[in-house]
């Protein structure tokens, strides 16, 4: 395959082979570098080795790759050399390169970039002479040896407590010199570093540092391909559903230098605020720096705009005088470059029609663009940016809807700290509001321990000096992340925003002591396990657990939801059992209740006593007496639901769980029950034993209860209809839907339907008034789906109980699947947890079939789904395609379902 096609694509002012749409082949970085060249933006020339070559590497190894692309790489190099008038490997005027990875989907910090490649002991002298700057040449060289030693030669810390070996050497040299910053090291110090680095590599890796530029280049190219399969890349792919097969491209690009003095620098910028979504150009830079210095949090970065700088100063508690002298903005120090950058960011955002995350370098007063991509952002920023871009005419309505990932709405619905509690809470430190949210947890200092603690059921805050890609998994399980170093574009900040995780970054006063497992601020010390709370919107760190309250939704959120309703076809209801839930559901935009689980009402207050009395009763008369006590309570519950849902459907499921769920199983509580019921404890025990089932999920439950104890169905029907009539009398538009659970045969349905109809007739006669209601059933046994036509002839609606349907179709229960399902998911036997996202091929087929059969028997059959799948975006999309009328999910997922339904409608349910 790959050998017949082009494998290397050049980009530069003279010629550009690729463009933005070629992400699959060139990776995101390569495709966008090409696109920027086409836009006339200054980009250092280079070439991209395609992702297909990565596949060759994985399958056949480095030699095969070299054979395949060598000639094309030579040609690409000639292109670069011609563009710059320098030669690679020429030590009198060396052409230096960066070697950068880049896959289709952006994987921030996943693959390591190598800068200044091509330097050796001779070339460094050439570089120094040519630039007239010896310090710069040696700074570049020491960086190269450090990066190459780490990434290609594999000299990394061996344990998590060990610091980066290269940094240890740097710290030692700094200490010797009595300086604090890298920039304070002189040429001789840098020479010393290079020497020590090489010695360290020789000692620990057992190989000499390569001096031949071509050997360096091939080593770096192969390392990029190799890195596709390193641990942290795998973790990132796992967390983000990126297939192994995609591969990464390699970008080989000529260097520009941000470390050439006070008119040089490097930076990162966002065309809008990635945290809040505000339409404000922002970013950070460092003068006389290179590569990852800004994101690595080595020095405190400066802000790009004056406005941003002032805001930063206010948060960092830096006064104007100090800000202006020590941390001035780019707008102030290099106004011409700032203008150029502003023009470029405007052009790029306009061109891509989305918020851009850009990387740039300034070399002696000249701006070079090194990367652009659609920026990662928080859920709140997603909503705001989409709606503002819509209003600004940059995107249309459909595109605005596509721009928001439904799941990310979760972040907006999440609780925030209760302002009253915040007033009383003790603030112990202050950092940058890197990613919003309210997080409370116990301090842990290591990512793997965060995972361990969370596995044990604890909630943790990961506290680090700074984070690195190794910490990804730990970051993803933590409630929040606190770092002592780094700015708004630091690794921790960017990754946390991408995950929608609360993060406070660069809390400068916090000192982290890894070996002691403590963090201290001033004279106070906090240990591993201590509770802290982070406010990701203000950057405040509090001691202890600060209580939270519900978030308030912004205008953009409401507007997005309205837009979703305009495009979606599927109705969205909520699963709600109480008037309070119903009210919440309605406020989130639910158009009705798709499932009210009546048994949830049985546990409240005194009711459980009456329920138990019914269970204990020896005969029908006894059961009726107990049920009569329950009737008024159920009736008033239903009245509340109907009132809240005025004008909207309320689907009420008759009693479903096995009776043993209502009795105590331990002796102590059985004694309490015996006392309450005034019977010997032996009687209780016997009855509890009696109710024991080997497999309750498939036992005496659902309509089987109502069929064996029709008086229960009678009471519930009466409660529903009397409540309905009472509310109707008060002018409320009652739309009751009575739902029979767990039906498997038509006769089961009919048996229950008869009880319901007879009870209804009796109630209507007594009251001298009628109430319209629908009578339908759950479809949750495979048999019900198979005979859906004959059930559809009887029932007025179907509601798929996809949880039970999944259990019975798969043949395993959700509660027991924990023992093997994680393994199955890892091994790829199942792609997704079938209880989270509907198994479209199997269970989904039953759903589709049942819809068709049911509608064939009754054309106006109402069909919905009330399992938790109703709030899963992928499942919602499936239900849209399957032609359902509505989905129903928990109140908090209603907005997610509404957006997912709109996206399904827009893209035709793909
Ligand atoms: P990542 O995928 O982690 O963003 P990059 O390939 O973008 O890695 O490289 C990281 C940084 O290295 C860039 O942001 C830039 O500062 C620097 N860099 C990469 N290529 C060059 C180059 N050709 N000249 C100067 N700096 C570069
Ligand atoms: Mg990086
Ligand atoms: Mg980058």
Structural class: alpha/beta
Could you give a short account of the major beta sheet? 8 strands, mixed
| Low-confidence region ranges | none
Instruction: Please tally the β strands and state the result.
Output: 31
Quick one: overall form?
elongated
- Tell me the strand percentage band: 15-25%
> Can you list the strand order of the major beta sheet?
12-22-21-14-15-16-17-13
Bound molecules: adenosine-5'-diphosphate, magnesium ion
Structural Rg:
33 Å
Mean pLDDT: 93
Short account of what is shown:
Helices cover 46% and strands 16% of the residues.
Features:
910 residues, alpha/beta, binds magnesium ion, eight-stranded parallel barrel, binds adenosine-5'-diphosphate, eight-stranded mixed β-sheet
What would you note in describing this structure?
By secondary structure, this protein is of the alpha/beta class. Strand 14 (438-444), helix 18 (447-455) and strand 15 (460-464) form a beta-alpha-beta unit. The two termini are 29 Å apart. The relative contact order is 0.06. The structure holds adenosine-5'-diphosphate and magnesium ion (MG) (2 copies). Adenosine-5'-diphosphate (ADP) binds at residues 44, 98, 100, 109, 113, 115, 253, 255-256, 266, 291-292, 359, 361, 370-371.
